[in-house]
Amino acid sequence: MNNVEDNSRQSLDSGDVTTAKRSSISCDRELLAKGVGIVQRAVSARSTLPILQGVLIETSNQGLRLIGTDLELSIEAYVPVMSTGDFQVVLPAKYLTEIVRRLPAREVIITCDSENRVVTISSGKAIYEINSMEAREYPLFPEVPDIPWWKVSGKNLTDFVRQTVFCAATEETRPFLTGVFMSFEGDEVRLVSTDSFRLALRKSSFDNVNSPKQNKGLIIPARTLSEVARIVQGSDNEVEVYASENQIAFKCQETTIVSRLIEGQFPNYDRVIPQQYSTVITVKRVALQETVDRVAIMGKDEFGTIRLTTDNDLLTISANAPEVGKAQDQVTTVSMSGEPGEIALRSRYLMDILKAVDDDEVSLRLTGSLSPVVITQVGVESKDSGSFLYLIMPVTLNA
Amino acid sequence: MNNVEDNSRQSLDSGDVTTAKRSSISCDRELLAKGVGIVQRAVSARSTLPILQGVLIETSNQGLRLIGTDLELSIEAYVPVMSTGDFQVVLPAKYLTEIVRRLPAREVIITCDSENRVVTISSGKAIYEINSMEAREYPLFPEVPDIPWWKVSGKNLTDFVRQTVFCAATEETRPFLTGVFMSFEGDEVRLVSTDSFRLALRKSSFDNVNSPKQNKGLIIPARTLSEVARIVQGSDNEVEVYASENQIAFKCQETTIVSRLIEGQFPNYDRVIPQQYSTVITVKRVALQETVDRVAIMGKDEFGTIRLTTDNDLLTISANAPEVGKAQDQVTTVSMSGEPGEIALRSRYLMDILKAVDDDEVSLRLTGSLSPVVITQVGVESKDSGSFLYLIMPVTLNA
After folding, report:
1. Contacts B295 to A, Cβ<8 Å
2. Which of B4, B29, B129, B343 is the mutation pick for testing A, counting most A CBs within 10 A?
3. What is the pTM assigned to this prediction?
4. CA-CA distance, B235 to B239, in Å (whole number)?
5. ipTM of the complex in this document
6. If chain B, 399 residues long, is cut into consecutive pieces of 10 residues, what is the mean pLDDT of each piece?
7. Structural domains of chain B, ranges and CATH numbers in brackets
8. Which of A92, B35, B68, B207 is within CB 3.0–4.6 Å of B77 for a Cys-Cys bond?
């Protein structure tokens, strides 16, 4: 039987020349698993270029350098090492990810033969031998500009992303709608996304904004922002945001994420937000969420279209699934101003928004049943104040 | 707008004749949701017969009677009611399940019009109106024999099922292998399943076995047993098992599950279990499980084929994924007797078994690399003792 141990003995026994050229490093299992877990997010298992199904692993002065990329999104992470070596290999991301999650001992030793062909990963009594792909074929990691445009805490950035990214389009027909528009005006940063049926606008002022005076804003792929949020979430560490003509980069401690920007002109979203509202009601967010969820079961079509009707201090939500039946429930409003209003909308869009918002109460602003409904913070006077604004286009139902 | 509330007022206001014929009951939200959750498991959303996509709901002396069926498996549950009514309706299982999970208030009122056409479910301010299907078209619930063959606690039955059902075949080519064979000999009950690549045998003696003297055993669909286990799991209540020529029934409190049996002759499984073993090793179950999981990453083919080699007090597990690489790890054995042994097998089968067993240690019994490996309790002397026995067919690997 030609097993791993035998092979490894053979090469160790096969003379000083070979032995001298083997190179190894040791590192911590948890840190290695964390690093691989981060960079493999940029790797697509379905890539037609085999080398892009791999993770680059190379020794460096800063530790073990890991890179994953699909050419659009590239992620680099450094793992501290307890000894130095000298190799550069590319291992299949799929296998590497599974392996590093299951290593039995705290210490991991990664050894490479003289020609960067076979990598041995050992931990406790477990030994893996993996064939490397040609490291010279691996794409170079993109350069990151010198000066960050914005410094923000991981937690704030995560909230910003979580509250906007879900409104971006998933269909590729208009690529610029699959991104989130980021703009800087003075110390105010805005994220805007829309799939043309709904819109999210999130804004806030920050201490550390240092963007060039004239910039028309950036369209960042929604997937990039989701991956950034996944990596920095819950972290108190500062994230540095860098941008150039066609790339954006996020640096957080030992991890750098670089992504292409989406070309094109983001729509003039300000135009679709109504200037005035005929009805403004304030409701408890969770109560509204539960009621919409309950009624939407009978929602028309695959989007669960429902109808909202305000009257005195009651918001009535109703739905009608043809042939099956109807549903209705009510929420008592916290406050209401203006005239009674009515609108039909896709319940999934409203649910997404109510889940993304953290406030205990939200305001719903209507302007007749043919204009979009706007969801804002409570007590916001003009459409330019408040830290978030969501908009949902109405659906025309046959009464 | 023609909403639910308007409709319901109309019918309530439309005169004494209509009002008198409406019938309603009230019940507890949690008990209703539990009952619907149980019976809808027998309903197939893909049934080509529309009536079989529904749940029958009818008033009875024992409470609200719910039935779901796909003609092979039928489940009946009774829900206690706080008032009596008189109706019989069939509501779409998909909608009903979603509705009862989301009702806002503790008390639920179910009202039916005089012709069993429209059902109103209301709770708090939520009102659903659902169109009923034709209840007279709903299949009759199968009759259950008078005397149970076996009485067993829900917990014991769940363990019995969990430890055997996963070895049944999922392919329909040989229907009798998609079931679990249940046989009674005196006070011993056996469950056996095999997909011809592996076999599970679980047996135990019980106080309450009362099966007819001559019975050749029953082949119960694996799905039926899984549903029974799901319903009675963790319950200390007694489950009564009834059988007839072509049906089996399980009664647990207010729930009755009736299933067709599978026709055919179950294979003579005793024949494939080796009479003697050349190697017997005992290992810690969890350590073996973790090691197999770790090495199987590099397992050959989609079944993650691995090799087990015993030598002195070590069990070596190795794998070889062509073109990708190799893996090896070792487990220290608790004890070993006989000669060194070796076998190649599908890691998934071994993992399934190690997950199903509760014992801290297990024995692996080999008879050369061309015979099946047998996994039993520790310290079992003959193949007829012990409460469980698993068998995995070997794979022939090119060395």
Report:
1. 126
2. B4
3. 0.90
4. 9
5. 0.88
6. 36 40 92 98 92 97 97 97 91 97 97 91 98 96 94 95 97 93 93 97 91 87 97 90 95 96 94 93 98 96 93 94 96 95 97 97 95 93 82 83
7. 4-137 (3.10.150.10), 150-260 (3.10.150.10), 273-392 (3.10.150.10)
8. B35
